[in-house]
Amino acid sequence: MIGVFDSGFGGLTILSAFLKKLPEYDYLYLGDSARTPYGSKSQEVIYTYTRQAVNFLFSKGCRVIVLACNTASTKALRKIQQEWLPVNYPDRRVLGVVIPLAESAVESTRYGRIGVIGTQATIESRVYEEELRKLRHKLIIYGQACPLLVPLVEEGWVGKPESNMILKKYLSRVKRKMIDTLILGCTHYSFLEKDIARIMGKNCRVLNGPETISYKLADYLIRHPEIEVRIPQNRTVTYCTTDDPERFRIFGEKFLSQNIPSVEKIVLGP
């Protein structure tokens, strides 16, 4: 299977893109909604939660896992790849979302002015700035933490006047920097993409993260046939959550526009 992990519902945007681009594979989605948001937690806690999730997904048979969570990708991915994975699952892989989005931003920017919005942890890590400058040194990069957006999405407040008011406040700071490309540095923000694009205006391209990441995964599987050949192709999707399964099912069906017959509640441990 291909595992998709997020701190809550946000990774459903990535899963949806995978199902459109690579529908033949089996998927296992895990949303840690009971402990969301990750963005306000310490690096040690984020690493522990992410490692627990990765361990669970591998125990269920996943061959490759996509951390569909920017906070986990920025705060935990490198340590998992370099220290934990070689000892515990050396023949399996964990991928993040930061590098694909950075590459897309550099390809898209017209004037070298790139904005990044994300959780407090993602922005403070400066990982997007680091990856962007590896690709092109002469860039103007502005990061804006938006800590209230994940809870708004998780509580189903997308499209409400209060959400738009908060969005406008956050994005007004970004607009003043005259950026031409905006990275949505949190998968939850894809639920707000239309409102963000409207507020930013026609002169700023808002990157479609899920679509970009789905193309990168397809390319990765082509380049790594030794992993691809071991992923079952039965077109099945399994859903797990650490919180209320019924709430997850209702939200998931609304977003994916397809029936979710069951959601398993799990407890993540050491």
Condensed summary:
By secondary structure, the protein is α/β, with parallel strands linked by helices.
Low-confidence stretches: none
Largest β-sheet summary: 6 strands, parallel
What is the count of DSSP helices, taking H or I runs of 4+ residues?
13
The whole-angstrom Rg is 18 Å
Q: What structural class do you assign from the helix and strand content?
A: alpha/beta
Q: What is the share of helical residues?
A: 40-55%
Outline the secondary-structure elements.
Layout: E1 2-6, H1 12-21, E2 27-31, H2 43-59, E3 64-67, H3 70-75, H4 77-88, E4 93-95, H5 98-108, E5 113-118, H6 120-125, H7 127-135, E6 140-145, H8 149-154, H9 161-175, E7 181-185, H10 193-200, E8 205-206, H11 209-223, H12 225-228, E9 237-241, H13 245-256, E10 264-265
Parallel strand pairs: 1-2, 1-3, 2-9, 3-4, 5-6, 5-7, 7-8, 9-10
Helix pairs in contact: 1-11, 5-7, 9-10
